Amino acid sequence: MTGEALQHYAVLGVPATATVEEIKARYKALLAEARSKIAARQIDVQGIERLREAYSVLADPARRAGTDRGTTARDDVREKHVLRLVDMDIGEAAA
Questions:
Q1: 31 or 38: which carries more pLDDT confidence?
Q2: Under 8 Å CB-to-CB from 45, ≥6 apart: which residues?
Q3: CA 24 – CA 60 distance, rounded (Å)
Q4: Under the phi-then-psi rule, with left for phi > 0, alpha for psi from -120 to 50, and beta for the rest, what region is 18?
């Protein structure tokens, strides 16, 4: 698991084994806390952004799996593109 993945789990305060339902419940609880701080004018905009980012990654099974194994969606797309180019080269070489 990468440092980025560990950071997302830490931001939400959930273990790596947490279900999507547990992640969602924790996110909602933390967001409610953040909203009360905003109402009290104790705004932590960066903290809210980290919370949103962590939730968006961990609530999406594909992004979560990529982050856990140390890749991003961009890396996955790049890898697929490279494999497609290799397949094209192999096809041309066989012809």
A1: 31
A2: none
A3: 11
A4: beta
Predicted pLDDT at 25: 94
Instruction: Please give the mean pLDDT across all residues of the chain.
Output: 76
pTM given for the model: 0.53
Query: What span, in angstroms and rounded, lies between the C-alpha atoms of 95 and 92?
Result: 5
Whose tokens are 């009290």? That residue is 40
CB contact set of 66 (below 8 Å; sequence gap of 6+): 72, 73, 75, 76
CB-CB contact of 50 with 60 (8 Å): no
Would you state the pLDDT for residue 72? 56
- Walk me through the domains of the chain, giving residue ranges and CATH numbers: 3-94 (1.10.287.110)
Instruction: Give the C-alpha separation, 52 to 46, whole Å.
Output: 10
